[in-house]
Design brief:
Elements (H helix, E strand, L loop, with lengths): L9 E9 L3 H11 L2 E4 L13 H23 L16 H43 L33 E8 L1 H15 L3 E7 L4 E2 L6 E2 L2 E8 L1 H13 L3 E3 L5 H58 L2 E2 L5 E9 L3 H11 L8 E4 L17 H10 L10 H16 L2 H16 L4 H4 L4 H8 L1 H18 L16 H8 L3 H6 L31 H35 L2 H32 L11 H10 L13 H51 L5 H11 L2 H14 L3
Antiparallel strand pairs: 1-10, 1-11, 2-10, 3-7, 3-8, 4-7, 5-6, 9-10
Helix pairs in contact: 1-6, 1-7, 2-3, 2-6, 3-6, 4-5, 8-9, 9-13, 10-13, 16-17, 17-19
Keywords: Coiled coil, Hydrogen ion transport, Ion transport, Membrane, Transmembrane, Transmembrane helix, Transport
Membrane topology: Multi-pass membrane protein
Family: Belongs to the V-ATPase 116 kDa subunit family.
Length: 714
């Protein structure tokens, strides 16, 4: 069978790569995807390998790429997909990419820092302008009244009256959620020796960090005395308030406000130029970053592969081991020759024997990839095992359709998947980043077949958007039942439910041409009938599916020459499966064929028969389906129970016996050699070792011969 039905034949090859052309050879092999390297330095730490410096350089570049990518996303831009296949650049271009990336990242940091500084400065100007233009005015001199008021202190301060003290001002802005706490703390800390005015800004100001519009609270605090002023400044600092100078004269405030507006306009012009330059830098990043990401990712993969190679004793070449499909060996040899031609020394490849299990290689395309992914999710098969993915192309969508069957819903699923299949080559569809869309797009062919099979089973169930359709005329005649049963008006008035008797002539005209008859949608027992039908159909399909899986195992046993598994595993599995559940399928089909509508009322129950089968009993009210049924059922149960210990212990005991025989055969020549040495003491140990080396291991010779046959002239 081909590679679709069985994993491809794989050989272990050894590569001798010249040091000057090792990078080019591995890069070319990576582009072709012909080999899978083995790690020959498994005992060496990752920090002690030969190309660890180059790998770290690539990782540093990836960190810089991440920074650039985040800056592009922060600006609301998207990175396009790289055009065409970009090969891994030579090592000298890696330094150029690193220098350009560092310069571009530093330039972007500087421009972004200048932009943030300018935005913060512009925000400060806006807040200062809002404080001056908010309408705060310093409190006027207190007017004296003839009589004392409630707020007039009883004792005068020792320094003189209050009107002789100098009034100072603290103006600024604070976040709205902090304003109430700030006002309360100021009043308590200063014991009321201040006048505070809080007002909300009329317009929202853009936050310099988040860029979102926000409302601020401006305040003006009038106080007397230096100590109170220190307390006020400390409190405003704790609340992270923006404090600005505030002139007492209105003319000075107007002049300061005009100056702030002029500075704000100039700063906006500078900020606009900075943002235009930033957009230019981001445009360069958007153009250069996607190809650089692909190239550096490939360079890193090349150096990681080179780290898995060992160095020859002369340090003139690298030795690598890799798995390669036997059909790709000529292409591998040609690729190595083309890659190492400039170095003057051609790379060498040859097959070597190996006792390790080769990896499983199954080639897929855009159609079979999703089905192969479903199979691999349950477990990847061993080397050269039968691949069940081709059969899953039919069984998985069909079993889904058995559950989902509906013409309308299946048609919608089919059209949705068909649209994705027809548009699969469009760049906009391929570059979509939505996770749900990528999941649907990856399984578009799976959805296509699921929808197609759902339409088919929907016609069988006769359901379209959960409604029955009458494509063909019904096989049941209500008129014949009414004419021959004597349904009168009084009978119809007393009986809300009417039964159609197929035994009456002309009532049942024949089976529906395809699927379930639409008259069942009007029946009261519609659900019980469909449940019984679907349950029996599911049992038949499930047993058939499991039997097919067991039969596929026969091909594996024959291919690997494991004939004992046919007797100890396959045969007991078939006896157990078919003896119990296969017999259940037989009962279902036998009852369908042997009982008609005339004898339906006296038909026995299959479920009761199946229960009695395991209990080794019989039910007097449930007559047998055929003569000798009890003997057949008892025999099948005994055979099924007898296969259980065979399935559990058969293969382990056989392998244990085989292992003991092998150990006995290996021990027997050693005992004979030991007896010969005791009888002939003049035989040297060196000659014995040379004889053993000449004899070798039969298993190794056999594996080497198989490898030579699979590799051919290579």
């Amino acid at each position: 069978m081909g590679s679709m039905f069985r994993s491809e034949e794989v050989a272990l090859v050894q590569l001798f790569l010249p040091t000057a052309a090792a990078y080019t050879c591995v890069s070319q092999l990576g582009e072709l995807g012909l080999v899978e390297f083995r790690d020959l330095n498994a005992s060496v730490s990752a920090f002690q390998r030969r190309f660890v410096v180059d790998v770290r350089r690539c990782e540093e570049l990836e960190k810089t790429f991440t920074f650039l990518q985040e800056e592009v996303r922060r600006a609301g831009l998207t990175l396009p997909l790289p055009e065409g296949g970009l090969p891994a650049p030579p090592p000298r271009d890696l330094l150029r990419i690193q220098e350009e990336t560092d310069r571009l990242a530093q330039e972007l940091r500087d421009v972004r820092g200048n932009q943030q500084a300018l935005r913060a400065q512009w925000h400060q100007l806006q807040l200062h302008s809002a404080v001056l233009g908010q309408g705060h005015s310093p409190p006027s001199a207190a007017t004296h009244t003839d009589g004392p008021s409630e707020r007039t202190p009883l004792l005068q301060a020792p320094g003189g009256p209050h009107q002789d003290l100098r009034v100072n001002f603290v103006a600024g802005a604070v976040e709205p959620h902090k304003a109430a706490a700030l006002e309360r703390l100021l009043w308590r800390a200063c014991r009321g020796f201040l006048i505070a005015s809080f007002r909300e800004t009329e317009q929202q100001l853009e936050d310099p960090v988040t860029g979102e519009p926000a409302t601020w609270m401006t305040f003006l605090i009038s106080y007397w005395g230096g100590q109170i002023g220190q307390k006020i400044r400390k409190i405003t600092d704790c609340f992270h308030c923006h404090v600005f100078p505030f002139a007492e004269e209105a003319a000075a405030r107007r002049a300061a406000l005009q100056q702030l507006q002029q500075q704000s306009q100039e700063l906006q012009e500078v900020l606009g130029e900075t943002e235009r330059f930033l957009s230019q830098v981001l445009g360069r990043v958007q153009r250069l970053l996607p190809p650089w990401q692909v190239q550096i990712r490939k360079v890193k993969a090349v150096y990681l592969a080179l780290n898995q190679c060992s160095v020859s004793s002369t340090h003139k070449c690298l030795i690598a081991e890799a798995w390669c499909a036997t059909c790709d060996l000529p292409a591998l040899q040609q690729a190595l020759q083309d890659s190492s031609s400039e170095a003057g020394v051609s790379a060498v490849v040859h097959c070597i024997p190996c006792r390790d299990m080769p990896p499983t290689l199954i080639r897929t395309n855009r159609f079979t990839a999703s089905f192969q992914g479903i199979v691999d999710a349950y477990g990847v098969g061993r080397y050269q095992e039968v691949n069940p993915a081709p059969y899953t192309i039919i069984t998985f969508p069909f079993l889904f359709a058995v559950m989902f069957g509906d013409v309308g819903h299946g048609l919608l699923m089919f059209l949705f998947a068909l649209a994705m299949v027809l548009a699969e080559n469009q760049p906009a569809v391929k570059s979509a980043q939505n996770e749900i869309w990528r999941t649907f797009f990856g399984g578009r062919y799976l959805l296509l077949l699921m929808g197609l099979f759902s339409v088919y089973t929907g016609f069988i169930y006769n359901e379209c958007f959960s409604r029955a359709t009458a494509i063909f005329p019904s096989g049941w005649s209500v008129a014949a039942m009414a004419n021959q049963s004597g349904w009168s008006d009084a009978f119809l008035a007393q009986h809300q439910l009417l039964a159609l008797d197929p035994n009456v002539t002309g009532v049942f005209l024949g089976p529906y041409p395809f699927g379930i008859d639409p008259v069942w949608s009007l029946a009261v027992n519609h659900l019980s009938f469909l449940n019984s039908f679907k349950m029996k159909m599911s049992v038949i399909l499930g047993v058939t599916h499991m039997t097919f899986g067991v039969v596929l195992g026969v091909f594996n046993h024959v291919h690997f020459g494991q004939w004992h598994r046919l007797l100890l595993e396959t045969l007991p599995e078939l006896v157990f499966l078919l003896g119990l559940f296969g017999y259940l399928v037989f009962l279902v089909i036998y009852k369908w064929l042997c009982f008609t509508a005339d004898s339906a009322a006296t038909a026995p129950s299959i479920l009761i028969h199946f229960i009695n089968m395991f209990l080794f009993s019989r039910s007097p009210t449930n007559r047998p389906l055929f003569r000798g049924q009890e003997v057949v059922q008892s025999t099948l149960v005994v055979l099924a129970l007898a296969t259980v210990p065979v399935l559990l212990l058969g293969t382990p005991l056989f392998l244990r016996r085989k292992h003991q025989r092998r150990q006995f055969r290996r021990r027997r020549p050693l005992d004979e050699d030991k007896a010969g040495l005791l009888g002939q003491p003049e035989v040297s140990v060196a000659s014995q070792n040379s004889d053993e080396e000449k004899a070798g291991c039969p298993g190794d010779q056999e594996e080497e011969e198989n490898c030579r046959r699979s590799c051919g002239p290579w």
